[in-house]
Each structure stands twice: as C-alpha cells, then as structure tokens.
Design brief:
Blueprint (H helix, E strand, L loop, with lengths): L1 E7 L8 E7 L6 E10 L2 H7 L16 E8 L11 E4 L2 E3 L5 H4 L11 E2 L18 E5 L4 E2 L6 H4 L5 H11 L7 E5 L3 H13 L2 E6 L5 H7 L3 E4 L3 H6 L4 E6 L7 H5 L2 E9 L12 H4 L4 E4 L5 H13 L6 E4 L4 H9 L6 E5 L4
Parallel strand pairs: 10-11, 10-13, 11-12, 13-14, 14-15, 16-17
Antiparallel strand pairs: 1-2, 3-4, 3-8, 3-17, 4-5, 5-9, 6-7
Helix pairs in contact: 4-5, 4-10
Length: 346
C-alpha cells in the first residue's frame, strides 16, 4: 500500500479537507498514475452532498483525471512509464456481460465500479482524482494524445465523453440541427464537439449572458429560454437536443422544439423526478433518451477526435485549497467552464 495526500469529504455536506488515503500496490495489470490534474464535475458535488442518494464516506471525489504513468504491473501491455494517460468515471466492470463485451462497460449489467464512491471487486472503497496518485487497471485507462495539454484534457474524461457519446449515437453531423441546453461544464463541450462534427449548433440558455462565449465556442445561434417567444420561434426545428443541465425542465416545451422523430437526449441528472405528458412524445414520434458517459473504446475515440480538432476544455486552474470555494461557484454557475485542480498543490 502507498499513502498519498488527497482532499476528501469526511461526511455528507461537510467541507472537503486535506487528508491521506491508501492506494493499493500495483497488481499484474495495473498502472500507477502520478495525477497532475483533476477536473471538478457537478456530479462530484451531487455525490459529496448525497444529492443522488446515500454515499460512502470519507469520499475523495474526482473522475476527470489526467496524469503520467509512474509504474506498470508485469502484465501491462497498453502503457509504459512516462505515458500521458487519463481515467474517467469508472475503474472496473464485470467484463463478462453482454454490454461489457460490446464495449459499453458504463452499462455493465452488474454495475460498473465508479472511480470514487464505490466498492471495488476487492471489497475496498474507491477514491477519486482529488489526490496525488491513483492505481487503475490498464483496461480502464486511456491514452491522452500529444495534441492535448493534460490540464485541458482532464475534463474530457467526463464532460467530453458524456456529450460526445449521444452526439455520435444520434447522428450529429452535416445537415443536422443540434441544440444544446445549458452552457456550463458539459454544455460548452457539447457545443465544441457538435460544431466539430459538422452540425448546425444552437445554444438554449436561461439568458443571453454567455452568448458571446457560445458563439466563440462554435454555436451558430443562441437563444434565451426565459423568453417564451423562443419556444414559438423554434418549434419543430431540431433533429437532436442534448440537455446538459441538472435542473428539472419543462420537457414538454423542449420536445416541442424537435422535428418529427427527433430526439431529446439527457445527460444532465436532476436530483428530482420529472413529470411528462406523453402526448408530447406521441405527437411527432419523438424520442426522450438518456446517455451516460461512454465505454472505454469510445472514450479513447473521443480523445483522439478532440486532439485531431484541437478541442480542449475551457478551464480555470485552481489550487486544491480552493476546492470548497469552487463547489460554491459551480452551484452559482460562476465558472467558465470547468474548474481543474492542480494536484501538485495537494
């Protein structure tokens, strides 16, 4: 076991504090990663504050991890010491079910093992990226291409793949009109990726406050959802809408913006249940869909795509001592567009 410094929430809703945790010894197929950067995802806050249900404490959040391989197990074939790598939202799965074998480990029938707030197959709790080192099986580690800086790559391990996957799955590309609800950590990546895929991109945000940013990131149009005229003007417009917000929405209103047989894909995860009049789906043959990150192969595909198109996250680099402040700013939508922890400051 190796003792490493980390920032952890000692209990639900408690401020994160500096502590130490134990990392397992490197096994046959493990890589030891010196973490250099860790993104702060809104889901870190949901889990640290038990917004999504009972959680495991102490909790070391962080599933947007970028760093350098420091040691490899004797059976490792994918990586060598010095390689630039990333770890996303999961660190294991059963690897045997139909979904795992299809490269959709995120939908493992027995449940994937989260990078933190989970219990591994060895019975030990998992701890995330707000720490100096992590040990991960090579099968759940991805390569960060040379064209991406590690700090801007870290958020791609969640925000990038979470938006890339539904955009690819539902056919975002030339000739398609795609709307992105929300221009935050997820939304800004959705805009960049949809634009790079060749779609005509519209941002739907509560206000026009971030309009200039949205257009610079690749949006063709920008509308305020607080203006009722938006829903009249854009009725029947979009082939695909990706909702990146974690607040409950009037889904009937947004479904009205879809073309016939269009899709509203949700990647934001509100803590509250939603209600829906099914006629808003039936009248137009529309689809209300969900999507959760992506498999390991698709995550690597996303990183390679982003490197090829010069896409990184828009980040604000912070010292670890500012994590609690960053959480409050995320909740206040006061970040453009992803906080990233410089783990050297832990």
């Amino acid at each position: 076991m190796t003792t490493v410094a980390a920032y952890a929430a000692p209990a639900a809703k408690a401020p994160l504090e500096r502590t130490t945790i134990e990392r397992r010894d490197v096994r046959e197929h493990d890589v030891l990663i010196d973490i250099q950067y860790a993104g702060i995802c809104h889901s870190d806050i949901h889990q640290a504050r038990e917004g999504w249900g009972e959680a495991i404490f102490p909790m070391v959040p962080g599933h947007e991890i970028a760093g350098v391989v420091a040691e490899v197990g004797p059976g490792v074939t994918k990586f060598k010491v010095g390689d630039r790598v990333g770890v996303g939202c999961m660190v294991d799965s059963c690897r045997e079910c139909e979904n795992c074998k299809a490269g959709q480990e995120q939908y493992c029938v027995r449940g994937n093992i989260g990078t933190y707030n989970a219990i591994g197959h060895d019975g030990e709790p998992t701890y995330g990226g707000y720490s100096q080192k992590v040990v991960v099986d090579e099968a759940f580690t991805v390569r960060v291409p040379d064209g991406l800086s590690l700090d801007e790559a870290a958020p791609l391990l969640c925000a990038g793949i979470t938006t890339y996957s539904p955009l690819k799955r539902f056919g975002a590309g030339p000739g398609k009109k795609v709307a992105v609800i929300g221009l935050g950590g997820l939304g800004h990546m959705a805009v960049k990726i949809a634009h790079a895929l060749g779609a005509e991109v519209t941002v739907l945000s509560q206000s026009l406050r971030k309009k200039d940013d949205g257009l610079k990131l690749g949006a063709d149009h920008y509308y305020a959802t607080s203006d009722p005229a938006t829903f009249t003007e854009l009725a029947g417009t979009f082939d695909l809408i990706v909702s990146t917000v974690s607040a409950p929405l009037d889904f009937g209103a947004y479904l009205g913006l879809l073309t016939a047989e269009g899709t509203l894909a949700n990647v934001g995860a509100p803590e509250e249940p939603i209600s829906l009049n099914l006629f808003s789906l039936i009248g137009g043959g529309k689809t209300l869909a969900g999507s959760m990150i992506g498999g390991i192969a698709e995550t690597q595909e996303m990183l390679d795509f982003c490197a090829a198109h010069g896409i990184g996250a828009e980040i604000e680099l912070i010292e670890a001592s500012r994590i609690n402040e960053a959480y409050e700013r995320v909740l206040a939508s006061d970040v453009r567009y992803r906080f990233v922890i410089d783990t050297a400051t832990i």
